[in-house]
């Protein structure tokens, strides 16, 4: 096929790409115009010295195409976010722990979490994460999950897990290094309740391997723990020292203080049951 034939075929295809609709008209320049938006549905080009008039998209057809493409991208992105959220949370109720569902009883921490999300691109570049520490039930895990959910909404892959779950999985697989390496495909790794895992040499080594892997390639982590900052800075065990040193270098510490939300919830549920059972 010659170049001229190829051009002719392309032009013929363009003629059938856009149909002439009711109301369309031919302008003074001899070109077809859209009867709705009154812009050209046909253009004029010179090919090998010959005048050609292939069809083109008018303004309203261009807007329709762009709208359809935008809607397609929106649906694809929503599907991606849904899959990321399903993969990122081992417990589905954590998917509801969002900024929208925050009771703002600790607005200082909530606002800090929002700032971290807003600046995540820079945090990711620096490999900077967060260390949320404090007493039991004060909302450390909720705050970490707020960040995770917000980043997933933006399309980042995030995993929320804990070392107890990780170590159980490692004991059940022969591909331990492959499993550990898989965590590095997540832009953010949230590890909940550090120090709640079994205190064995095997467990400590796996904890170190995971922390060290992200430390070396500067991928951010958010870690929650009931340990005090003093215990993290001055561990008695050399194995824990090398773990905590890496965490403190990469994760900015934030103390979470306040009344135990967990105890308040238990108290509310107790009072509700008392009322239902007529025991008040």
Give a description of the structure.
With 280 residues, the protein is an alpha/beta fold. It is 51% helix and 14% strand. The protein contains eleven helices and nine strands. The chain has helices spanning 3-17, 59-88, 107-118, 120-126, 140-153, 163-171, 176-182, 201-216, 229-233, 238-250, 261-276; strands at 25-26, 32-33, 45-47, 50-52, 129-134, 158-162, 188-194, 221-225, 251-256. The strands form three sheets. Strands 6-7-8-5-9 form a five-stranded parallel β-sheet. A two-stranded antiparallel ribbon has the order 1-2. The radius of gyration is 30 Å and the shape is elongated. The protein starts with a helix and ends with a helix. The mean pLDDT is 89.
Please specify the SSE layout and strand pairing.
Blueprint: H1 3-17, E1 25-26, E2 32-33, E3 45-47, E4 50-52, H2 59-88, H3 107-118, H4 120-126, E5 129-134, H5 140-153, E6 158-162, H6 163-171, H7 176-182, E7 188-194, H8 201-216, E8 221-225, H9 229-233, H10 238-250, E9 251-256, H11 261-276
Parallel strand pairs: 5-8, 5-9, 6-7, 7-8
Antiparallel strand pairs: 1-2, 3-4
Helix pairs in contact: 2-5, 3-5, 8-10
